Amino acid sequence: MTATPKITVDLLKTYDRPGPRYTSYPTAIEFSEAFGPDEYPARLAAADRAEGPLSLYAHLPFCEHRCTFCGCHVVITKDQEIVEKYLGFLHREIDLLASHLPNRRRVSQYHWGGGTPTHLTPAEMEALHKKMTEHFTLDPDAELAIEVDPRVTTVEQIELLRALGFNRISMGVQDFDPDVQAAVDRNQTEAQTRSLYDLARERGFASINLDLIYGLPLQTLPKFRRTVDVVIAMRPDRVALYSYAHVPWVRAQQKRIEQTDLPSPEDKIQLFLDARERFLAAGYVEIGIDHFALPGDELAEARANRRLHRNFMGYTVKVGSDMVAVGVSGIGDVRGAFAQNEKKLSRYYERLEAGRFPVERGYALDRDDLIRREAITRLMCNLWLDTVAVEREFGIVFAEYFAPELARLSAPDGPVAHGFVEVAPDHIEVVGLGRFFVRNVAMIFDRYLDRRITDKPIFSRTV
Ligand SMILES: C[S@@+](CC[C@H](N)C(=O)[O-])C[C@H]1O[C@@H](n2cnc3c(N)ncnc32)[C@H](O)[C@@H]1O
Ligand code: SF4
Question: How confident is the model at residue 201 (pLDDT cuts 50, 70, 90)?
Fold first, then answer.
């Protein structure tokens, strides 16, 4: 069994600070209205002239009930009319998107996220998939993934998803402990999760993922250990072990969580380390900052070959060179620009009603952004940055271009001195305990961060 690493309080004092998770670089707070519905079509036109399959994301925001911890963009409703209206507009958006991509229709990565996509009825799910595939062609080996909530997902929906070709399923668990569940207003029995899991296995999903969160209120080591052991016994192909992002200034319902019920930073990292040790001992391979996969899983292989990617859909090996997104709050990444859709349903509808893309804001990356994005995403995914490859790709001398960043890495109290990072002539590697602080390492390469860290909270904490 691997020994649990020791992370001292002093280290936490240095490294536990607000910081991005880098699901994108630049992060979404840099997005602005300078990039909107007028700018997006030109990027799509450029994407249409390019080669290769796309990644295609659909955001389905509905849930029956709001979990107190939730940081996702959700709409709580039981009103079927609201859902139907949304789907009508979503279909319109898909038509509009496809009309701008007449020559680029292949898709290698297809993902329904939320919210809870299985809040839709089977008929609605089928109609949405039909609309998507009327325009877009899924590669024979494409990844078709969906996020589901075991509390609301039915046998009929699972059978339908398989019949439609979905091959990956991700289920929200978070924690099995009844006290923790009560503290976050999410009651979900082990039996509910287990029966959906068994059904998905039986019906032949190629990959099943379970989501856990550490750092939730009332979590303790022995309790969370139990949750982890139940998950390990189920043997999912992948596990996401997310750090609870406490951002009550963005998600008002999180204010209902008592600060005193939250584990301290020291306890929180112990929850992670202990769970990590159990997953590793059970044969899982660590993927990026917060995932585990069985050794045969393609993520584990990609990690070993340092070819792992991450986008808004999560870790993947099938990343398309452009990612298009439909639905409220969806974020596309097309030809060097991010485009985020309206987050409010009413504004999303208004834009589409006017025949325009419902893009609220976005960001066109400049050359420096592209270089830094490469450095940050490589470090975050593979804990390794091939600096020679960056030099080749962008025509820079790494040591000159990143001289201030290299100096910060090697400062007397910096990550190199802490034994977290090794800098070699041709690469940078995150080593030892550094993997737990890779967000902090990535932050050194972020051009925007200094002016974003103010008294006003923006990011969740890195621990
Ligand atoms: C869209 S939900 C998954 C599907 C479904 N809605 C459910 O909850 O079962 C995506 C995942 O995000 C994670 N999540 C949500 N809010 C979070 C937060 N504040 N911090 C960390 N992870 C969070 C949860 O693990 C959740 O399962
Ligand atoms: S965690 Fe899942 S079910 Fe709960 S509110 Fe968020 S998206 Fe909905």
Answer: very high
Separation CA 388–CA 375 (nearest Å): 11
**Ligand 1, residues 69, 212, 216, 290: which to mutate, most atoms within 8 A of Cβ?**
69
Given a cut of 70, is residue 262 above it in pLDDT?
yes
Residue of the CA atom closest to atom 1 of ligand 2 = 70
Ligand 1 center–CA 427 separation, angstroms = 34
For ligand 1, the distance from its centroid to the CA atom of residue 271, given in whole angstroms, is 18
Q: Ligand 2: distance of its center to the CA of 421 in Å?
A: 36
Task: Please give the number of the atom of ligand 2 that sits closest to the Cα of 70.
Answer: 6
| Ligand 1: centre distance to CA 43 (Å) | 31
Beta pairing partners, 147: 170
Residue with more model confidence, 283 or 436:
283
- Distance between CA 117 and CA 161 in Å, rounded? 11
Residue from 338, 323, 449 nearest 31 by CA: 338
Q: Strand 54-60 vs strand 359-364: parallel, antiparallel, or unpaired?
A: unpaired
Q: What are the CA-CA distances from residue 238 to residues 185, 279, 284, 333 (Å)?
A: 25, 10, 8, 25
pLDDT at 161: 98
Q: Which residue minimizes the CA distance to atom 6 of ligand 2? A: 70
For the sheet containing 427-430, what is the strand order?
Answer: 384-386, 427-430, 421-423
- Classify residue 460 by its DSSP letter: P
Whole-model pTM? 0.93
- Ligand closest to the CA atom of residue 66: 2
- Express each pLDDT in 18-72 by its tens digit: 778 888 899 999 999 999 999 999 999 999 999 999 999 999 999 999 999 999 9
Question: According to the model, what pLDDT value does residue 5 have?
Answer: 62
Pocket of ligand 1 (CB under 6 A): 63, 69-72, 113-116, 147, 149, 172, 174, 211, 213, 242, 244-245
Q: What is the whole-number distance in angstroms between the Cα of residue 67 and the centre of ligand 2?
A: 6
Classify 137 as helix, strand or coil: strand
Residue 3's pLDDT band (boundaries 50, 70, 90)?
low
C-alpha to C-alpha distance for 245 and 255, rounded to whole angstroms:
13
